[in-house]
Design goal:
Radius of gyration of chain B: 19 Å
Number of helices of chain B: 16
Number of strands of chain B: 2
Number of domains of chain C: 1
Strand content of chain B: under 5%
Largest sheet of chain B: 2 strands, antiparallel
Number of helices of chain C: 11
Order of helices and strands of chain C: HHHHEEHHHHHHH
Number of strands of chain C: 2
Structural class of chain C: mainly alpha
Oligomer: heterotrimer
Distance between the termini of chain B: 38 Å
Radius of gyration of chain C: 18 Å
Strand order of the largest sheet of chain C: 1-2
Shape of chain C: globular
Helix content of chain C: over 70%
Strand order of the largest sheet of chain B: 1-2
Shape of chain B: globular
Strand content of chain C: under 5%
Largest interface: B-C, 45 and 45 residues
Largest sheet of chain C: 2 strands, antiparallel
Structural class of chain B: mainly alpha
Distance between the termini of chain C: 42 Å
Chains: A alpha/beta, B mainly alpha, C mainly alpha
Chain lengths: 250, 315, 286
């Protein structure tokens, strides 16, 4: 753990978090702190438990053991919608737009029900339009959400999460399937989001991007935290290299 | 809503309101039945059309409203208005209490549970003394279909205005999001359990009021007619035929389907149910999204609309 | 001893219930189609057997294969010609269409067969035998045996035969069905046809042990739901469990609470199962 992280205020903290399904252990005794304003990267081979961890933080699932603290308060027992009100927003790896609604309406939901929600429908729609502009979908507001192509769907997911005005944003592989240009655009977007004051946890397989973005990196394998530190420290760690043996990607 | 739409709506309501003063008593009676069915269709629209929980047992609320009103008036000799209120309270309480476990189920399981619940309550009521067991209850007689007609019309208007409010409000938006994708709705801050249960309670409210009015009008109730399962299918087919999730669709569906069934029944006796079955089949195959949707899109797409629909839903 | 008699009645009833629910459970579990006309299929099967008996003197247990074949064709055509067009529509559309079919079939039955009660009464219909002080009607016992046989045959078919495995694959996804060399439209029609055939068979048995009217359809459909849910849709043998549970619950419920509470008992049971364990007794927990 670097000095920086140890000193900074932890917006979010995981303490000995475990998630078990019957005999299978998805997340095992994971502890870390996430400072406010920090971009924390989370990497690891497939099946390492990264998405499960995000599910535990967003409230979609409850841990079998351990504690999750947001702004000092424990999250246990709080349903997902309450966590959204507190300011935890997330994207889904398997994207989940509201299929029958327009792009604008999809994001309006977040503006209406998130943290510091808009009070009227028109102002919520305006806020939604603003976020859609921000992610680059400003010209597609009235299209049906299920008509969007892959990269645009990811932008939509992002806009939906942003409309919640999250303090902690959990990004689950937003760059999968994007080309180099699109990846750079998303990296830039994420940086701007952090500059706006949001703390971000990024799960990513695209090593180049994660190296550029992350202030610190966490590495998960078989549900356990096997390394933690800056990108340079972690990516040179022999344990990490071994975990990824034969599967390095750009 | 555009002012033209408002004017048309007001004209329609006014036209309907003067029916008892201009048309025959038979039509007035038909009108009462149809309007009450329209209320049921709107009630279903709230939980099924907007929230996406296709209840197959809203008849339980209708039945509870029927019996609540009847028992209040017959056994406790309370006035009609109080009876109506009691019926409504019983039904809404039932919806809120049982909604919590039942709304955790999805799709088919939810549909069947509501159906089973309706049958179970009917079976229980058929065994209680206070409700007159299987013989039923006879309510005090009051003459004057006009009052019941205007009351039913008023309830339809109230239900439709409520659905209009839903279509524009934050609450209604939340319900639609739940329908579209419940787990995504929850992480976006929508209190899904609370909203679903409230929608269920709202549906219960209107269904119960319709039941209470019907009870007093018809003066005789028994478990079989109060908890009639075919009501469920009728209210759903009317809502879906007119347009589930729209504001006026269910009312239009109710008026159209009842109207045609009535006309046919007067020409060929006994065939009403056959017709009904065939209409359901045809409507579901060709206009699965409802008449309102068809009316909106037919002018532009013509017959291609039907072909597209079939192509979208076929295996 | 009364309890033993009630137990025997419950078991025999349970076996009959199992085959009654079998067709519905198959179609629901595999195709995710809830056939609200299932009871009407049962009713039709019963009437076909009735007329084969009174017209041609065919013993109902002998005409069973014929009835099932006829109902298979009906079911196949309905799926092929109508239901296949709605498979990807919202769920309640399918419920409404099958309800419409139920209404039409009930009306036609009323028209053709009249509303009189009918029973299939072969020579052995009234005779019983005694076992441990319990009276067991022969007809009921034979119906029970056939019911178990049909259920077992279906389970085997789904496990072993090519078509059976293709049907199970279809339950997983359509692409898998294609891999087995069975076009989905055919797999669907075949499955629905089998469901109708099973309903027809159940109807024949029902006609022997109970009374037929055009209106027996809806309550039988409702019972079939309850059984399918209680037993669980994942396992074809679940209907046996579900049927037994319901049969015994009704038998003992009648004994303890009185016959008028019979429906309340089975429905109450259904509601409880749905709330506590929606996947059923033999179902895999979601």
């Amino acid at each position: 753990m670097t000095q920086q992280a140890a000193r900074g205020e932890a917006l979010f903290e995981a303490r000995h978090v475990t998630k078990r399904y019957g005999g299978l252990v998805a997340v095992s005794d994971v502890s870390f702190r996430h400072a406010e304003g920090e971009i924390l990267g989370l990497i690891g081979p497939n099946g390492a438990g990264k998405t499960t961890l995000i599910n535990l933080i967003s409230g979609t699932q409850e841990p079998t053991g351990g504690t999750l603290l947001f702004d000092g308060r424990p999250l246990r027992g709080l349903p997902p919608f309450r966590r959204a009100h507190l300011g935890i927003g997330r994207t889904f790896q398997i994207m989940k737009p509201f299929p029958g609604l327009s792009v604008l309406d999809n994001v309006t939901a977040g503006a209406l029900f998130g943290r510091q929600p808009e009070r009227t429908m028109p102002s919520a729609r305006d806020a939604a339009a603003h976020w859609l502009e921000f992610v680059g979908l400003g010209d597609k507001l009235d299209q049906p959400a299920d008509a969007l192509g892959g990269p645009d769907r990811k932008r939509l997911e992002l806009a939906k999460a942003l409309a919640l005005k999250p303090r902690l944003l959990l990004l689950d592989e937003v760059m999968a399937g994007l080309n180099a240009v699109e990846i750079d655009e998303v990296v830039d977007l994420i940086r701007r989001i952090r500059d706006g004051g949001t703390t971000i946890l990024v799960i990513e397989h695209v090593v180049k991007a994660i190296r550029q973005l992350s202030d610190r990196l966490l590495v998960l394998q078989y549900g356990q935290l096997i390394a933690e530190g800056t990108a340079e420290e972690v990516l040179d760690d022999p344990k990490v290299i071994e975990a990824y043996l034969g599967r390095r990607r750009h | 809503m555009r002012s033209l739409a408002w004017i048309v709506a007001l004209a329609a309501v006014a036209a309907l309101a003067v029916v008892p003063f201009t048309l025959s008593p038979v039509i007035v009676q038909f009108g009462i039945s149809t309007l009450l069915l329209a209320v049921l269709a709107q009630g279903w629209n709230i939980i099924g059309g907007f929230t996406g929980y296709a209840s197959f047992g809203n008849s339980v609320f209708y039945g509870l409203g029927t019996y609540g009103t009847a028992v209040a008036m017959v056994k406790f000799e309370l006035p009609f208005w109080l009876g109506l209120a009691i019926g409504a309270v019983v039904a809404v309480a039932f919806a809120l209490l049982l909604g919590l476990p039942v709304l955790r189920l999805r799709g088919h399981y939810f549909a069947i549970t509501t159906l089973a619940l309706s049958e179970a309550v009917a079976a229980i009521i058929a065994n209680l003394d206070i409700t007159g067991r299987n013989t039923g209850l006879i309510l005090p007689l009051i003459r004057g279909d006009t009052m019941f007609y205007e009351l039913s019309l008023g309830l339809v208007v109230l239900a439709t205005l409520t659905v209009l409010w839903l279509s524009r409000s934050r609450f209604g938006f939340g319900l639609i999001a739940i329908r579209e994708r419940e787990d995504a709705a929850e992480v976006m801050g929508i209190p899904t359990t609370l909203y679903k249960t409230l929608a269920f309670g709202l549906a219960a409210l209107f269904s119960a009021l319709a039941g209470g009015i019907h009870a007093y009008w018809i003066t005789f109730i028994d478990p079989a007619s109060a908890f009639d399962i075919s009501l469920n299918v009728r209210m759903i087919i009317m809502a879906v035929f007119g347009g589930a999730g729209t504001v006026v669709g269910p009312v239009i569906g109710a008026l159209m389907l009842s109207g045609v069934a009535e006309v046919l029944a007067s020409y060929i006796t006994g065939v009403a149910s056959l017709f009904f079955g065939l209409v359901i089949i045809a409507a579901v195959v060709f206009t699965p999204r409802g008449v309102i949707d068809a009316v909106r899109k037919l002018p532009r797409r013509g017959l291609a609309y039907f072909l597209d629909t079939v192509r979208e839903t076929r295996l | 001893m009364l309890a033993l008699q009630v137990l025997a009645n419950g078991i025999l009833l349970g076996g009959l219930y199992a085959v009654v629910a079998l067709g519905l459970a198959l179609v629901w579990g595999v195709l995710d189609i809830i056939n609200l006309a299932h009871g009407a299929f049962i009713m039709l099967g019963g009437y076909i057997a009735y007329y084969l008996f009174t017209g041609l003197g065919l013993d109902p247990f002998a005409s069973l294969p014929l009835v099932m074949a006829a109902m298979f064709v009906l079911g196949y055509l309905i799926q092929w010609g109508l239901l296949n067009f709605l498979v990807r529509a919202p769920m309640f559309n399918m419920l409404l269409v099958t309800f419409g079919i139920d209404v039409v079939l009930t009306y036609l039955a009323q028209l053709l067969f009249s509303a009189d009660l009918r029973t299939i009464r072969p020579a052995y219909a009234g005779s019983n035998f005694q076992l441990l002080g319990v009276t067991i009607p022969w007809a009921n016992l034979m119906a029970f045996a056939v019911a178990m046989l049909l259920t077992g045959l279906l389970a085997l078919f789904l496990q072993r035969q090519r078509w059976g495995r293709a049907i199970r694959a279809t339950a997983q996804n359509l692409g898998a069905a294609r891999l087995h060399g069975v076009p989905p439209r055919f797999a669907y029609a075949l499955t629905f046809g089998i469901g109708a055939a099973l309903a027809g068979g159940a109807g024949t048995l029902y006609g022997v042990v109970a009374q037929l009217t055009p209106y027996v359809g809806v309550p039988l459909t409702a019972k079939s739901f309850a059984i399918a849910i209680i037993g669980g849709l994942d396992n074809p043998l679940g209907v046996i469990v579900g049927g037994m549970v319901l049969g015994l619950a009704e038998a003992f419920g009648s004994l303890w609470l009185g016959p008028t509470y019979r429906d309340a008992v089975s429905l109450g049971l259904l509601v409880m199962v749905l709330i506590v364990r929606p996947t059923g007794i033999l179902g895999r927990t979601a």
